[in-house]
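Bumping with the actual sequence this time:
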Amino acid sequence: MADSLRRIAAALERLSPPVPPRPDLSAEGYVWHPQPDRLEPVERVSRVDLRLLHGVDRARDILLANTRAFARGLPANNALLWGARGMGKSSLVKAVHAAVAAEMPGLKIVEVGREDLPTIGRCLALLREAPARFVLFCDDLSFAGDDQHYKALKAVLDGGIEGRPENVILYATSNRRHLMPREMIENERQTGIHPSEAVEEKVSLSDRFGLWLGFHPCSQDDFLAMVRAYRDAWAIPVDDATLRAEAIEWQATRGARSGRVAWQFVTDLAGRHGIRPG
């Protein structure tokens, strides 16, 4: 009987999932991967310097102050950065993290994919015990159709008896203020048995972010200011008149003005002049 019990115990141990190792916190950033649960280190986070982000001054100052408060262990809000595509939402999150981490080492950034939101509770359990502070970053967050991932995120933001770990804050970016298409919200109003309740359940997700930072399409003056800032940062030998003419032509061919378009133009310009960004 004792031998049988030992064999059964050994078989159960083999079937049980291994305890995830404690994360190595030497890197500045991580990507959450489930199955097996792990934080994959990112030795060099892809980002631009905070000083290069123009036209988003108000959002920059608010997010910077909120992140500094969090890094100091003070009360801080989860933040939703929403609005026009290409206007620097993701770049701002990463740049603000870098700026604050340089002032207060120990602040890490962890990226979580939208498709991995159902496992976010396990990620938080791992971070809760870690001796560091974490900006949990979910980029391009949106939901559609019968997508139920938003329910997992609601619990992280405000619900559950454990609540969000004290050493974790969530920053998310989205093109939509309410994280779902307007037609989806309207469809709930028209077809639901209790339409107002169905709409409230979904819209309440964005309400759980303490900070809403809006990003709007930029003017031509803002676009040219971004281009000049990148030109100066890379020391590209192009005069203002030529730069202006080529930048306007570039944005006309793209049919849009944004920080991303400005960056793409200056990247092309640097390549044509044989300039390597510093």
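The tokens above came from a reply further down the thread. The mean pLDDT is 84.
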